[in-house]
Amino acid sequence: MIPTNPPVDGGVPNFGIAEIRASLRKIERSDLWAWGHTVVLILCLTAIIVSLAVSLLLKGTKTFFGINLILAVQTLVVFVPAFNLYMIHQHFRLRNLQRRLAEHQIEAEVFRRLAMFDSLTGLYNRRFAEQRLQAEIGRSERRGHPLSVVLLDLNNFKQINDMYGHAAGDLVLKELARRLSNAIRTSDLAVRWGGDEFMLLLVDCNLSQIQHVVIRLTPFDVAIEDKTISVSFAIGWKEYVLGDRADDLLDGADRQLYLNKLTMKNTTHPVPTAV
Fold first, then answer.
1. Distance CA 169, CA 162 (A)
2. Domain 124-274, CATH
3. How far, in Å, CA of 261 to CA of 217, rounded?
4. Pairing of strands 189-194, 124-125
5. I want to staple 201 with a disulfide (CB 3.0 to 4.6 A). Which of 184, 189, 214, 228 is the partner?
6. What does the pLDDT profile of the chain (275 residues) look like in tens digits?
7. Is the dihedral of CA 166, 264, 149, 202 positive or negative?
């Protein structure tokens, strides 16, 4: 099992772009520091060689180990600046390549996360959750670990949108997402299943332990301008039984959610109250 941390932080996820850019800047600073020291070292060595050659010429020595000193000095004077210019050119080419690779990395990370996360709530999306659910079922089947699925459905969500607008509905969804993330462990999964439906995938969690999670999920209020919206939801759950498939878990949780919904059928529509 791979621990998975819900990415909800109360705002829209930034897909890790800031972290990638910060890492790139750190690499560039380290590269610039190393490259600068290399150039300084080359210049120092060149200066030492030139000084030695000039010193020998002043003493009247024309050759050194069979090398024409005047020609050697002239060659160094031409070669060293040309070599440094070449290194500078290559360095900037390398930095441009690093930037392009970093941009590709950022794009790849954004696409990867878009394939995993819901852009509004920051929770994992249904596509990723279905893959993870299959993997956890296989793990429970092999090792006998408990596994539970919890489904949640907001009550009167259409009325919230109709009465207060979609911006208010989005705020309700994000607040519920935040509460779901706070109610579970880092090894669990909080998912926006679709629309106003959510799912919790609770690994190593049996029926009795589900209650510890459910008890944290209570109705709440959301302030919209000078009004307060009372938000409630129905909950259903199902524990994995050997031989269950993903559909069995989801259907079982959905049936219990529906029964729970029926008991709340007479709940009044959300009524605004003054803050």
1. 9
2. 3.30.70.270
3. 15
4. parallel
5. 189
6. 444 444 444 444 455 566 666 766 776 676 667 667 677 777 776 777 667 666 655 666 555 555 666 666 667 667 777 777 777 777 777 777 777 777 767 666 666 666 789 989 999 999 999 999 999 999 999 999 999 999 999 999 999 999 999 999 999 999 999 999 999 999 999 999 999 999 999 999 998 889 889 889 999 999 988 889 999 999 999 999 999 999 999 999 999 999 988 887 644 444 444 43
7. positive
DSSP H helical segments within 115-228, as ranges?
Answer: 126-143, 157-164, 166-183, 207-214
Residues known to be catalytic: 196
Question: Up-side HSE of residue 113: CA atoms within 13 Å toward CB?
Answer: 19
Using CB atoms within 10 Å of the CB of residue 197, give its burial: 0 to 12 exposed, 13 to 18 middle, 19+ buried: middle
Tell me the C-alpha distance between 257 and 151, whole Å: 7
Q: How many Å apart are CA 190 and CA 76, to the nearest integer?
A: 67
Neighbours of 194 (CB within 10 A): 11
Q: Is-contact 30 205, C-beta < 8 A?
A: no
Give the number of other CB atoms < 10 A from CB of residue 161.
16
The full length of the chain comes to 275
Q: What is the pTM of this model?
A: 0.63
End-to-end CA distance of the chain: 45
Residue 108: partners with Cβ closer than 8 Å, 6 or more residues away:
none
